[in-house]
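JOB MANIFEST
job_type = single_chain_structure
chain_count = 1
residues = 83
[input]
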Amino acid sequence: MQNDEANVARVRTAILDYLAQHESAADTQEGITDWWLPAEQRAMARTVIERALDTLVADGLLEGTRLIDGTVLYRRASAPKRA
């Protein structure tokens, strides 16, 4: 379990690093996995990547928009949530 949390943290960092370089980027979970993550992280369990995305949305750093086919498109949040 502790290893999963470390992996979630690494994926979160990779996503935020990608967005720092590509501020207007938007993609699905599959696209994020294939294009935003470093090669060594692409093989991580789908649940690890989902949890990373979920926590970034919960923290107000990403927005998820559900498309008509049910797929979620993620992008940088327009304004971070205030605590």
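[summary]
The longest strand covers residues 62-66.
The beta strands are 26-27, 62-66, 72-76.
exit_status = 0
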